[in-house]
Amino acid sequence: MTMEFRNPPDAEIRAILARPATVAVVGCSDNPARDSLRIAKLLKSRGFKVIPVNPQLGADALRGALGEKCYPDLVSIPEPIEIVDVFRRSEFVPEIVEDAIAKGARVLWCQLGVVNLDAARRADQAGMTVVMDRCPAIEYARLF
Questions:
Q1: One digit per residue, pLDDT tens: the chain, 144 residues?
Q2: How far apart are CA 86 and CA 74, in angstroms?
Q3: Number of domain units in the chain
């Protein structure tokens, strides 16, 4: 069963981006040409604490770029996470949602092209705000 999905209203997206929080960037790359690293740096510059998540990278892979240890998955992060920003293919979102729920995250943000309606429904049922197929950089430019 799928649902029709609507992103939160602009006021709610603006509120998410205006209040710095701890954000886990799932699929964060150490390649400066990749959007995941660019967006992670943007969020950090806006006051967010950015924690990279990538099982292929070592713990220190992004320490220079982001100032934080890189973790293999969400559940390995020892501190609370408020926002989970997903840079993985859509088929990986259900597992990420389960980990985000386990971590008590309040926002699931799926980047451009990342859409999984069943995972969105699961996150919504768990009380999370879900933003899909949107980029924080574009939303900052549009809403601020």
A1: 445 799 999 999 999 999 999 999 999 999 999 999 999 999 999 999 999 999 999 999 999 999 999 999 999 999 999 999 999 999 999 999 999 999 999 999 999 999 999 999 999 999 999 999 999 999 999 999
A2: 11
A3: 1
For residue 16, tell me if it sits in a domain. no
Q: Token match 């292929």: residue?
A: 56
Query: How open is the CA angle 74-7-91, to the nearest 5 degrees?
Result: 45
Give the pTM: 0.96
| Cα–Cα distance for residue pair 133/112, rounded to 1 Å | 4
Domain-located, residue 63: yes
Domain containing residue 59: CATH number: 3.40.50.720
Domain that holds residue 99: 22-143
Long-range contacts formed by 30-34: CB under 8 A, 24+ apart: 30/54, 30/57, 30/61, 30/62, 30/65, 32/65
**Does 37 fall in a domain?**
yes
